[in-house]
Design goal:
Radius of gyration: 14 Å
Largest sheet: 7 strands, mixed
Strand content: 25-35%
Distance between the termini: 28 Å
Number of strands: 9
């Protein structure tokens, strides 16, 4: 497990997206993409055999989050919505990041965030626990 602080959280999330080769799951209740995030997700979604999924908040926020995730749906990202979603988790075949950070431009630019990252090889039990919970959320969406 690795603790990530402050502005390094954004870089860690973008790094996870950039290194993903098999699958990528982005769980963020609120989405407001910025240019670098859109670029990294587009690259990931374009890799051969890559599966990219995103889960955002539904319920009263559904219309706003559908509009915010339109860009990603256009890239071939599978987007689902879950009422009362609060978790912020980003998972690839290599690692999982559990964090306070939504995929919001304002969070990336000027929020103090905190995260923990679990490596699939060096911390396989914790990584699998996080991945399993995220897959359960996706099934519920």
């Amino acid at each position: 497990m690795k603790v990530i602080k402050g502005t390094d959280v954004t870089g860690a999330i973008l790094g996870l997206i950039g290194e993903a080769a098999g699958f990528l799951i982005l769980v963020s209740p609120y989405v407001d993409p910025w240019d670098l995030l859109a670029t990294e997700v587009r690259r990931a979604a374009g890799r051969p055999g890559m599966r990219v999924s995103m889960l955002a908040r539904g319920g009263a926020d559904l219309a706003r989050q559908k509009a915010a995730t339109e860009l990603f749906r256009g890239m071939g990202v599978r987007v689902g919505f879950l009422e009362r979603l609060h978790a912020k988790v980003y998972v690839s075949e290599n690692s999982a990041i559990v964090t306070s950070m939504n995929l919001l431009k304002s969070s990336a630019l000027d929020s103090w965030e905190l995260a923990v990252q679990f490596d699939a090889k060096s911390d396989p039990v914790a990584y699998q626990d996080v991945r399993s919970e995220v897959l359960k959320l996706l099934k519920r969406a």
